[in-house]
Amino acid sequence: YAQEALGLLLQVAFEVCGAAEVRNRFESSRIAAAKAHRNAGFSVINEENGMLELAITRDEYEAIKNVRPE
């Protein structure tokens, strides 16, 4: 359900709250979480000390929001 949850989070962040960017940071050992974020459109922006930081901008979200499967 991670993919669906991330999709709803992005929808609310960008379409309701007007966010310019959404970021998340977690342990790089969380392979499934990293995959879910990448599948939702996030890109890795930093990886150090065992931590992974990912982000997606409003423009990136707008470019993929109608392409992602429901």
Task: Provide a descriptive summary of the structure in words.
With 70 residues, this protein is of the alpha+beta class. The chain starts with a helix and ends in a 6-residue tail after the last helix. The protein has 3 helices and 3 strands. Strands 1-3-2 form a 3-stranded antiparallel sheet. The chain has helices at residues 2-16, 31-39, 58-64, and strands at 21-27, 43-48, 51-57. The chain is globular, with a radius of gyration of 12 Å.
Q: How much helix, percentage-wise, in residues?
A: 40-55%
Q: Termini distance?
A: 12 Å
What's the average pLDDT? 94
Form type: globular
Low-pLDDT segments: none
Structural class: alpha+beta
- Put simply, the count of helices is 3
Percent in strands: 25-35%
| Order of H and E elements | HEHEEH
The biggest beta sheet reads: 3 strands, antiparallel
Q: How are strands sequenced across the largest beta sheet?
A: 1-3-2
Summary?
This protein is α+β, with helices and mostly antiparallel strands. The protein is built from three helices and three strands.
Which characteristics define this entry?
70 residues, alpha+beta, 3-stranded antiparallel sheet
How are the SSEs ordered, and which strands pair?
Layout lengths: L1 H15 L4 E7 L3 H9 L3 E6 L2 E7 H7 L6
Antiparallel strand pairs: 1-3, 2-3
